[in-house]
Amino acid sequence: MSLTPHAPRPTGDGRRETNAATVLRTVLDHGPVARSAIARISGLSPAAVSRQATDLLRRGLLRELPERPDPAGRGRPQIPVDLHLGTGAGPVVGGVHLGVPASTFGLVDLRGRIVARRGFGHERADPRTLPALVARELRAFLAEHVGARPLLGVGAAVGGWVDPDHGRVVRHDALGWWHRPLAAELTRGLAGLGGIGEAGGPRVRVDNHARAVAQSEILFGRPEARRSLVHLFVGNVADAALGIAGVVHQGPGSAAGDVAHLPVPDSTVPCPCGRSGCLEATVSDRTLGETAYRRGIVPEPDSSLLVDAAATGDRRADRLLRERARAVGRAVALLLDVLNPDLVVVTEQASLLDPGYLEEIRGAAVDLSHVCDDPERIVGPHAGPSAMPVAAGTVLLHPLFRNPLQGIEGLTAPAGPP
After folding, report:
1. Considering the entire predicted model, what is its pTM?
2. pLDDT tens-digit map of 375-396
3. Domain coverage including residue 328
4. Taking CA 162 as the corner, what is the angle to CA 275 and CA 246, rounded to the nearest 5 degrees?
């Protein structure tokens, strides 16, 4: 089922930009697709589709495929167009998810698919110098993997309160960041690397990681996500995002999504805020690792070691991961009852790797929810274990699909050596 809306009828200067976005989004949903089909699906006139397709072809965002005959045997052969995805030729975006103990780099194509990815551990790094360290490693990663592809820019996703309009991390308690100009710091670290942006470097955009995953689901995931979704991120921090009719809510000051102190039914875990049973204190990776270490399950307080132990058959590890999954499910039940979205997307380490833990989340949520009796409404991210680098790339791809003509007046040279 297609959810591509018919194009609005803008006038004046906005018409060209809106029509270009409609054509590009229609190709994303239906490509490869002939221009005549784009007009039929989008509601644009054939002439408008032809103009915008030509514009997008010239900018390297679309490409023509070999012509194919009309299946009804009438008229001239049709030349379908698709997003420019050619190996070694199609444009790409860089992505970085900045976590507390580690970050993940990704190179993402126009369909939100991973071209290359790499992890970068920095558990003992000084948070004050972390952006420069990440930028240096990201620069080397891009120089190695971009090759001859045009680099459209870099998206960065990070936890906490993030203001994307000003490129700032307003507050990140785990890293001790306050009003951190992360976009400017990453831009400086990538200066001189080929791409679209100031001073010859790629442009950089940052956003909260929960909103980034939500936007990734809307662009590339299940059709229901475009109607309404809630995304819950559980890692070293707990964040959430709400999307309605294809728009991810930010709220005044871009502060929406702070669920760290959402009460978890039946939890008595103390929280630094002075209360007990808060979501982040109950389910965070930090809490999970410390509990596993205290119980003698892992040799150091590291949640990844716990997940590895469960995968090798350690029943104590599995039991602890199921405890957390049920706690996450109780929080999901609260979100379902308050917001009743079409989808709840949960990004949580163990359930990304083993669907059995997602079933635990679903079971607890459905048992406690007063409005949801369908466990299939609770899902993992469409990109699975690649969810975070894809989401980081989407921080840049989302504004591109919203306005593909802005800032894409010709793609610059590919990235060179650092």
Report:
1. 0.90
2. 999 999 999 999 999 999 999 9
3. 223-380
4. 105
